[in-house]
Amino acid sequence: MLQYVTTNPGKLREARSYLGEATIDDYDYDYPEIQAPTLEPIAAAGARDAYREVGEPVIVDDAGLFIDAFDGFPGPYSSFVEHTIGVDRVWELAEPLADRGAAFRCVLAYCDGEPVDDPADDGDLPVRCFTGVVDGEIVAPRGSGGFGYDPIFEHDGATFAELSSEEKNEVSHRGRALESFAAWYSDR
Ligand code: ITT
Ligand code: NA
């Protein structure tokens, strides 16, 4: 069974809803996060660390909210910002902006310890990354579903907090990353 390594129950709920209960297990481990301006190296380093900890195939899910007018901030710092100033104050910072465009990004990093045939391989544990992106707008908080920044992220007229997990997965960054992971995983 695949171990979905996260401390975030919202991520796990969406992954289970997409991949099915039988595909993934919950592995609650807070892998150390490196700092980087993009999500891919953070997820990849996390997947290597998680694989060393778990010893079974793992998926690590690194995600963030990238606000256009803030040059992508909070981006890789989304967790820190949520736990310091909080989602309502991110809305207050965005409210005066003329352009409130933003994107959610999600990178799923998979590691099973198997070597891959890659001449550029540096000898470290190989990791495969699957990315999903969705565009939207920062709005005043609405809705009580989802988690994290969902109440202030609107896409196609609804905030992600107004959608069920299934509805969110159909359009979300995580749903798209899960889709490309599932396609690769099923015919690998
Ligand atoms: P991990 O244990 O998986 O690392 P985490 O919550 O710390 O859990 P991240 O490091 O990826 O996750 O931080 C991402 C931040 O963005 C965090 O504040 C989440 O609440 C938020 N976030 C991630 N995906 C989201 C989504 O689909 N909708 C709303 N907020 C999201
Ligand atoms: Na984290």
Task: Explain what you see.
- The protein has 188 residues and is an alpha/beta fold.
- The protein has a single domain (2-186), classed as Maf protein.
- 34% of the residues lie in helices and 24% in strands.
- A seven-stranded mixed sheet has the order 2-1-3-4-5-6-7.
- Strand 1 (2-5), helix 1 (9-19) and strand 2 form a beta-alpha-beta unit.
- Helix 1 packs across helix 5 (165-171).
- The two termini are 15 Å apart.
- Sodium ion is lined by residues 33, 79.
- Residues 6-8, 11, 30, 61-64, 78-79, 82, 104, 146-150, 160, 172, 174 line the site of inosine 5'-triphosphate.
- This is RdgB/HAM1 family non-canonical purine NTP pyrophosphatase.
- Keywords: Hydrolase.
- One of its GO terms (cellular component) is cytoplasm.
- GO terms for molecular function: nucleoside triphosphate diphosphatase activity.
- Belongs to the HAM1 NTPase family.
* Assembly type: single chain
Beta-strand content: 15-25%
Provide the number of structural domains: 1
Q: Structural class, judged by helices and strands?
A: alpha/beta
Order of helices and strands: EHEHEHHEEEEHH
Q: Strand order across the biggest sheet?
A: 2-1-3-4-5-6-7
- Look at the structure and give the CATH class: Alpha Beta
State the share of residues found in helices, binned by percent.
25-40%
The CATH architecture? Alpha-Beta Complex
Rg computed from alpha carbons, rounded to a whole number of angstroms: 17 Å
Described by the principal axes of the CA atoms, the overall outline is globular
CATH topology: Maf protein
Largest sheet: 7 strands, mixed
* Bound small molecules, deduplicated: inosine 5'-triphosphate, sodium ion
pLDDT averaged over residues:
95
Instruction: Name the poorly predicted regions.
Output: none
Number of helices: 6
Distance between the termini: 15 Å
